[in-house]
Amino acid sequence: MPAPDDVLATLRDFVARVDALDPAAAPHGELVVGLRGVQSRLALSAPVARALVEALRAYHDPRDRGRCDHCGGGRLDDNFLCGDCGRPSGLFGQLVSERAARHTEQGAVPAAPAAGRRHARADGR
To answer: Is residue 15 helix, strand or coil?
Structure first.
């Protein structure tokens, strides 16, 4: 987890980068962010406010795999099984489920050839 100073520094850097593109933009407001006793006041121009909103809306958490097709829950695992209703979600989830249902265990793997011999021959030579 990033330290509070890292979060605040990143926000300040974001504001400065966007402000530099339109330094004459009128003030839009102020954003006060406090993390673990450390506070930062950031002046927001309209372009900065717009950029911040767009950046936050565009963010997609890699753990978010969408909503379940059956119950609408938002807890799909890596195999697209819903943590709420237990059913596979979507076409990929259904394919994984069908494939798993058809899976059968393979027989035992034969032992490696005896030490010193590179290949085992059927005729014993």
So the answer is: helix
